[in-house]
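Good morning N.,

You mentioned wanting to compare the apo and holo forms, so I went ahead and generated the holo version with iron/sulfur cluster. This is what I fed in:
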Amino acid sequence: MGHLRIDLDKCIGCGKCAKMCLKDHIVIENRKAKELDNDCLECSHCVSTCPKGAITLTPSSENGGIFSEIKKDKMFDGGMVSDEDLKSLYGAMTRSGRVQVCTLQGSTLDMFMEDVWTVINEKELNTPIVKEWAKWRSNHNSLEPNPVLWEGKQVLFIFANGIDSAVDASNRMIVKGLELRIRGFHSNIIMSAVTLDRERFAKYFPGIDKEMRMAYVIGHVRRFVEPVFKPMKKIKGIFDRI
Ligand code: SF4
Ligand code: SF4
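and this is what came out, ligand included:
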């Protein structure tokens, strides 16, 4: 039984899914993605990587692989957290009344990230991720996810007068996120840009009167997974044992 449903009308044959798949479960044939008979981890990475939304996972309930829990995460199912879930997350975070929260997505997030880039460039910050971002921008290919966001399509911001309140809200967000199956990672690069030029970013958050303390990219925690799993992929048969 197949694990994936691939909409061939949507598929443009870009090969992102095949490249991403740790099990080599997908190939490109005649400029379309095709599922092979190899084992599928049902990790859903191909689902969220596909720029055209052409892949749907049809998980087998018997799957007991290491991703059987992780795959239930919200971002594995199209990459976006619903307004309802965000509201629920906000409710848990703002209970103390000492923080404000806001999420950017879509074209507003694109504009915001352009401003982040401008500040990072002006200040000549030069970290490995900035170099990676510069490379991504120079070969700009809208099919490749922005390396700062990975496949994340939403960024949640925490505003507070004091850092303690922000940390408290962040902890609440993580705990509530576990229940809602929402994960992500804190972005230092976004916070660096905002800290360097708070005035520039104020326009994105009308009505917010506290200071931005944290930027949390909702999505895969791929940065931590990839360096471990990509070399492992080279070790023959390793994935047959998990
Ligand atoms: S990533 Fe999506 S569009 Fe690209 S080849 Fe795979 S299924 Fe097709
Ligand atoms: S769900 Fe994971 S293992 Fe299965 S085809 Fe997609 S990327 Fe590969």
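The chain has nine helices and eight strands.

Happy to go through it together on a call whenever suits you.

Best,
F.
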